[in-house]
Amino acid sequence: MPEIEMPYRVARIQAWALRVPIRTPVATSFGVMHNRPAVFLRIEDAEGAAGWGEVFANWPAAGAEHRVNLLIDDVAGLVLGREWSSPTDMFHELSRATHIRALQCGEPGPFRQVIAGLDIAAWDMTARRGGLPLAKLVSSGARDLVPVYASGIHIDAAGAMIAAARAAGFRAFKVKVGFDPGADPGKVIECSRQLLPQEALYADANQAWTREEARRFLKSAAEARLGWIEEPIACDAPDGDWLDLAGLDVPLAAGENIAGADGFDHALSLGALRFVQPDVCKWGGVSGNLAVAQDALRRGFVYCPHFLGGGIGLMASAHLLAAAGGSGLLEVDVNPNPLRDALASSGDFVRDGNWHLSREPGLGISGIPAELRDHVTLTREAG
Question: Which of 28, 113, 123, 152 meets the CB 3.0–4.6 Å disulfide criterion with 333?
Answer without folding.
Answer: 152
